[in-house]
Amino acid sequence: MDIKMNKHTVVVFDLDDTLYNELDYLRSAYKSIAQFLEPMAWRPLYSKMFSLYRSNHNVFELLAQQYKIEIESLLNLYHNHQPEITLFDGVLEIFDAIKIKQGRIGIITDGRSKTQRAKLKSLKILKYIDKIIVSEEFGSEKPNILNFKAIESSVPGTDYFYIADNLKKDFIGPNALGWQCVALIDNGKNIHRESYKYMDAHNPLHFILDFKDLKII
Description:
The chain is of the alpha/beta class. It contains 9 helices and 8 strands. 32% of the residues are buried.
């Protein structure tokens, strides 16, 4: 897919499962928690935690019982750790290409402010981004159209693109505003796995397999 770029073009990205796999954040958090609970032998606990998660068990409830720790404390460790996550292949190349053509970049993401901004810091992309909308800071979550209008107000342009992964909620707002919507297809590791239920109602205009399917012209 080609995106014609100039100084009036704004490309907005979702964060989780769009720029990196959210499952990697979970693994990073589990590792941090395991190291806190079992600093001398954290690997077996980490392995157990991830296996429990994959088996649909309540990991924090079981840890709270085993280690006599409050679930809230575990949640704080989860949300406040500094994540070890990596961008999908091709993301930086797309960001560089947008900036070379004087385009602008936005982020619209749902979640806690501290957590989402820690992710962006770990991914080392803050220098590229002209506007960040985090739901906790803004006061509403997708699919609220106001989150997308906030980008239009902050980063004026004539052509807006939104690249995201979750067909349940990601494309309702930008579709209503006439943005060109692009869905990144699940690579098999996405947290949200029920996109097929929403394909008829909330379809984006384009689908891509990965960022190598995008070309900035």
